[in-house]
Amino acid sequence: MKVVLRNPRREIDVATPRNVAQLLTDLDVVPESVLVIRNDTLVTRDERLREDDVVEIRPVVSGGAR
Amino acid sequence: MKCRRCREPAVIDVRRHNAAFCQPCFLHHCREQVRRAIDEFDMVQPGERMLVAVSGGKDSLGLWHILSELGYPADGLYIGLGIGDYSDTSGRYAQEFADRFGYTLRHVDIRDEYGFDVPTGSRAAKRAPCSACGLSKRHLFNAVAMEHNYDVLATGHNLDDEAAVLFGNVLRWEAGYLGRQYPILPATDGFVRKVKPLVRLGERELAAYCVLSDIDYIVEECPMAAGNRHLGYKEVLNTIEERSPGSKAAFVFGFLEHAHHRFAGDATEEREDLGPCTVCGAPTPGDICAFCRMQARATGTRIPVTVTTSATMTAEGAELDH
Fold it and tell me: Can you give the three-state secondary structure of B113-164, one letter per residue?
């Protein structure tokens, strides 16, 4: 399946994991620091993933001067 | 997962609340958290004029939208900081959002109006880029709010920002900063009232709010922020939060309830020692405020300063003596 990463934007192919939580574990991403968006819709950690899904992992952490 | 309120399929989980929500219930949850923060800290009264600090990111655009939804109409203020394409892009997001909802957005371009940009100011004042940026924004947001007689300035600081700042201030026991870290800072001579209505929402919730409200915001991070200390603190706190959901909220709200008052005196003393900047009139502990000093250095301007020895010095000379 395709995974879109940001900062900078890029696409990678990964073996389809069983669900969103597993995908984040495989990619070593802390779930608290991202949203997962599948086909333009937010999905929760327990959501099952399919081979033809396109999933964006969008970072939510902003820094610098506030 | 099912929505905690209506049992429909959920789209977002919020482990801090041990809950998941569908789209309508999540948007309701976000509005309720902001409404509770406004009420709990008595941030704004009906009819007061509010200015929102807008960057084009998820927090400020989400805040502006929620305030409007809750019946607090506000104008926005965007500051063009001159950080290359990033500033151009973030300004475009801010303006497109304002146009779409019919809100009024004020613009200040630091290069056009003050003759320098943040990268130049950072180098000239020997400040980290985020420090030069933060100094410029704090100064200009306050100055514009005062000039145009707004009653209150709202910023998009969220729970994660507050937790990271608190973490840094506690690591170094910055008593003055700890005394000022509160969701509302009352108006005093030269300062407009400042409020942080997002203090009960994490930045993951703000990002989800924007996605679920179809609000386009700049996702890319500022190129000058990479590797800064604040981001490092957030990374540590998110790792803790993952193992122990609710830790960030417990840290921030525990501080506000049990410890803030112990430091409030330090902040009051600091504010009582301020006088007007001899260049711009903004409150400052010295003769010339840090923003005017940075501007003078970045633009090569020599500013005459009256000091206690009755000698006249340049801004740079005064700085070297301190």
Answer: HHCCCHHHHHHHHCCCHHHHHHHHHHHHHHHHHHHCCCCEEECCCCHHHHHH
| Partner-chain residue, chosen from A30, A62, A64, that has the shortest CB–CB distance to B238 | A30
Domains and CATH numbers, chain B: 41-271 (3.40.50.620), 273-322 (no CATH)
The structure's pTM equals: 0.92
Which domains are present in chain A? 2-59 (3.10.20.30)
What ipTM was estimated for this complex?
0.94
* Angle subtended at Cα B144 by Cα B138 and Cα B148, rounded to the nearest 5 degrees: 150
- Asked if the Cβ–Cβ distance from A30 to B137 is below 8 Å, we say no
d(CA B155, CA A66): 8
Q: What are phi and psi of B288, to 5 degrees?
A: -120, 135
Pairwise CA distance, residues B115 & B100, whole Å: 31
A45 inside 8 A of chain B by CB? yes
Say if residues A39 and A53 touch (Cβ distance below 8 Å): yes
Q: Do A65 and B134 touch (CB under 8 A)?
A: yes
B58, B137, B207 ranked by CB distance to A65: nearest:
B137
Q: State the CB neighbour count (10 A cutoff) for residue B17.
A: 15
pLDDT per residue over B151-185, tens digit each?
A: 999 999 999 999 999 999 999 999 999 999 999 99
CB-CB neighbours of A29 under 10 Å: 15
